[in-house]
Structure formats: structure tokens, C-alpha cells
């Protein structure tokens, strides 16, 4: 650390004989060095330190190492959003002429990046069903550079055949990228299943309070790590120190929150399945889940914070349900401390044709719930109020 003083600012950081137990927010954009030699030491890796916040800052470092520890990975990079993480990987590691293969039910903006932006830059893309490893492997081309999948699909909660896909990618020299936002490292560490790169929207469960927008990416290979870092720094995907500070705080309670929401989600799923007018309930640990055995293996018996269900009565019943369940926020996010409800046909999947939605199993009566930390009895009562309104 520099001991040189500047004329501009008094030294406000000294705290005497004791030290705070909470990390501070460091908003500084620039860092002053002692000498040109000291800068050389920093740039050439002989000394640690920061130079300019777009290239890295202490609060981003704290989030980066906290998520890396959770994922069982050596290092990671905090970025300004989950989409910044997806973009930094897809554009930082590809060039015109390459092909990128994606899961066919990726997060909406990831799908858009694949269908609109990569092709515009000369990078070919295609999609395949990740629940079918053989079909996915058959979609790999000689020029396929990387594959991007999520472990649990949104909002239909289907399980990818992660191990089968990892094997196919390894055999064909394809970089396997797993977006672990939905599943979180508490349920699965994709690196242990053969992923090369793991990424997150820290915005969701990890930060957990719907008050920060952040992303994270970690790569096993240092050369790929450097390419992602350079692309992110050049294109300015800088995370805000304040957001990082809030995320660090939020992540301290992540394991507790994740355990609690799973208990409530399992109870809610069981309750919904018993109600009149509910035609389908999806939850990974339920006996009737289409990928139950795979979910058991990959999530090691755990579930998730999401429950999806379908009510009869189409759009009219769906409108009545959200009005009747007035205590539950009808809002398109997930992973908040409060329960949120989303309706794919009118939000995340509105761009799809009704036929395509039907093929994926999302009717007008289909809802996705991100379960929060409310009292489970009160939450179930709120759902019952919605169901009563939908039936009326
Ligand atoms: C929300 C989300 C993203 C994008 O994250 P932002 O922080 O909103 O940019 C990417 N992938 C998945 C699975 C998500 O749920």
C-alpha cells in the first residue's frame, strides 16, 4: 500500500487501534502509485493493487472471490449484470465464422443475443434441447466454439443432461458454459460436472434482495479468463462498488435463504397439487416431475426456489388469480426475499407464438413462482385466495 500523501485529500482511512468488522465501500475511480517502477510491478503481477476502477476495484474483488469460493473455482470476475457476464463470454471467446450452440430454453435476453447479435457479427448460432444429450451432441458442428446451457429451464423446470452434454463437449473440444443462476452453487457446482465456464446473474438469488444488478463469471482456463476479462474491461462492463457492497452483504445469508425457500417451495408445490382447478404442478423433487431421477442426481436430492403450475380457465382465470392473490407481487424477477409471481405468456415468453408456447407447456394459465421468505402458512393462504378468485 502506498504511503505517499497527495495534496488533494486528507488521509481519512486510518482507524486507530481497532478496525471495522464490515468492509467499506471504495468508490475511488483511480489509484495513485509511488513510482513508475511500482506501477510496473503491479502490471506485471509482482505486486497487488488497483489502477483504474473499470479494470477492477476492491468491492468487485470481494464479490468475485466470494462467488468463486461457493463455486469451488480458483477465480472469478464481477461484472455489471448477468447479461454482461453472458455477453463477455460469448463475444470475448468467439470470432466471425465460429458457431455457438445454446440450450433452447435459455434466459430470454441470452436467446436474443444468440438469435440477433451474434449472427450480425458473423457468428453462427443454433439451439438444441439440453434434456437430450444425444440430440445436443448431434447439433455440434466442426466450427462449434462453445455451448451455453442452463441446468434447470425457465419456467418449465426441465433438467439438462449436464453430464452427457459435458462429455460430448469434451470429446469435440467445445467450451461448455453453464449459467448457474437458477440452480446456484448450493444445489450444483457445474465445474464438478465438466463445465469449463460458469456464470451468474448475481442480481437474483445470490444478492437476493432485488436491489442490485450484477453478474459473475469464472473460467477454469487462465487464457479464457484473460480474454473474458479484457473484453469486459474494454467494453466497460464495470460493476458499481455500491452494488458489490450490497451483494457481499446479501450473500452472507444466501445459504440460509436457499434452504428456507426450498422448504416452503416443496410445501407450496404439494399444496397446489391438491387444489381443484390446478391442472399441473412442476417441482424437481416431486414424483411426477418429468426429469425426477436426473434432478435427484444433479441437485443431490435438493429442489430449488421455483415452483411452476397451471390453472384451468385460460387468460381470464389468470387475471382473476393475480387479482385474488393480491399479497403476492406479480413481477418478472426471481430470487428475491419476497415471493414473486410471473406469467410467461404475457411477459418472458410473449415473443413466442401461442403454438410454440403450447409445445413448451406454457398455456395462458401457466404461472411461475419464485418463493421467498414469508411465513409459509400466510403464503399458502394468499395462493388459496388467488385460486378461489380464479375458480369463481
Ligand atoms: C436474470 C438472468 C440473467 C440476466 O441477469 P441480469 O443480472 O438481469 O442481467 C441471465 N441468466 C438467467 C438464468 C437469469 O435468470
Describe this structure in words.
With 392 residues, this protein is α/β, with parallel strands linked by helices. It folds into two domains: 36-252, 3-Layer(aba) Sandwich (Aspartate Aminotransferase, domain 2), CATH 3.40.640; 255-391, Aspartate Aminotransferase, domain 1, CATH 3.90.1150. It is built from 14 helices and twelve strands. The protein has helices at residues 36-43, 58-71, 82-92, 108-120, 133-138, 162-172, 184-187, 222-234, 241-252, 254-273, 292-298, 314-324, 354-360, 376-391; strands at 77-79, 99-103, 124-128, 144-150, 175-179, 197-201, 215-219, 278-282, 306-311, 329-330, 340-342, 366-370. The strands form two sheets. It has a seven-stranded mixed β-sheet, sandwiched between helices. Helix 3 packs across helix 8 (222-234) and helix 12 (314-324) crosses helix 14. It is globular and about 75 Å long. The termini are far apart. The chain binds pyridoxal-5'-phosphate (PLP). Residues 81-83, 86, 107, 110, 150, 179, 181-182, 201, 203-204, 213, 215 line the site of pyridoxal-5'-phosphate (PLP).
Name the descriptors.
Aspartate Aminotransferase, domain 1, 5-stranded mixed beta sheet, Aspartate Aminotransferase, domain 2, 14 helices, alpha/beta, binds pyridoxal-5'-phosphate, 2 domains, 392 residues, 39% helix, 7-stranded mixed beta sheet, 12 strands, pyridoxal phosphate, 14% strand
Amino acid at each position: 500500500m502506498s504511503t505517499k500523501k497527495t495534496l488533494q485529500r486528507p488521509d481519512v482511512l486510518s482507524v486507530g487501534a481497532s478496525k471495522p468488522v464490515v468492509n467499506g465501500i471504495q468508490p475511488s475511480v483511480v489509484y495513485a502509485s509511488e513510482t513508475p517502477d511500482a506501477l510496473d510491478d503491479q502490471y506485471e503481477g509482482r505486486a497487488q493493487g488497483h489502477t483504474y476502477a473499470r479494470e477492477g476495484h476492491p468491492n468487485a474483488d470481494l464479490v468475485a472471490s466470494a462467488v468463486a469460493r461457493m463455486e469451488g473455482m480458483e477465480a472469478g470476475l464481477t461484472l455489471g449484470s448477468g447479461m454482461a457476464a453472458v455477453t463477455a463470454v460469448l463475444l470475448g471467446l468467439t470470432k466471425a465464422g465460429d458457431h455457438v450452440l445454446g440450450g433452447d430454453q435459455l434466459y430470454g435476453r441470452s436467446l436474443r443475443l444468440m438469435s440477433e447479435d451474434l449472427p450480425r457479427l458473423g457468428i453462427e448460432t443454433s439451439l438444441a434441447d439440453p434434456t437430450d444429450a444425444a440430440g445436443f451432441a448431434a447439433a455440434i458442428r466442426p466450427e462449434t466454439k462453445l455451448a451455453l446451457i442452463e441446468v434447470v429451464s425457465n419456467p418449465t423446470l426441465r433438467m439438462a443432461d449436464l453430464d452427457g452434454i459435458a462429455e460430448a463437449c469434451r470429446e469435440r473440444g467445445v467450451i461448455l458454459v453453464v449459467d448457474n443462476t437458477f440452480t446456484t452453487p448450493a444445489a450444483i457446482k457445474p465445474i464438478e460436472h465438466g463445465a469449463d465456464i460458469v456464470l451468474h446473474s448475481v442480481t437474483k438469488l445470490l444478492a437476493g434482495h432485488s436491489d442490485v444488478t450484477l453478474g459473475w463469471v469464472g473460467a477454469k482456463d487462465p487464457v479464457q479468463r484473460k480474454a473474458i476479462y479484457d473484453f469486459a474491461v474494454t467494453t466497460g462492463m464495470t460493476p458499481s462498488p455500491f452494488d458489490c457492497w450490497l451483494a457481499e452483504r446479501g450473500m452472507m445469508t444466501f445459504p440460509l435463504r436457499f434452504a428456507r425457500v426450498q422448504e416452503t417451495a416443496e410445501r407450496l408445490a404439494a399444496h397446489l397439487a391438491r387444489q381443484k382447478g390446478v391442472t399441473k404442478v412442476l417441482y424437481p423433487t416431486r414424483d411426477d416431475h418429468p426429469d425426477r431421477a436426473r434432478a435427484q442426481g444433479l441437485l443431490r436430492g435438493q429442489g430449488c426456489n421455483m415452483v411452476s403450475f397451471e390453472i384451468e380457465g385460460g387468460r381470464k382465470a389468470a387475471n382473476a388469480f393475480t387479482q385474488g392473490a393480491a399479497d403476492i407481487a406479480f413481477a418478472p424477477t426471481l430470487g428475491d426475499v419476497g415471493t414473486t409471481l410471473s406469467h410467461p405468456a404475457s411477459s418472458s415468453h410473449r415473443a413466442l407464438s401461442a403454438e410454440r408456447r403450447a409445445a413448451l407447456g406454457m398455456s395462458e394459465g401457466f404461472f411461475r413462482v419464485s418463493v421467498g421468505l414469508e411465513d409459509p402458512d400466510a403464503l399458502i393462504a394468499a395462493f388459496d385466495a388467488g385460486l378461489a378468485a380464479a375458480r369463481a
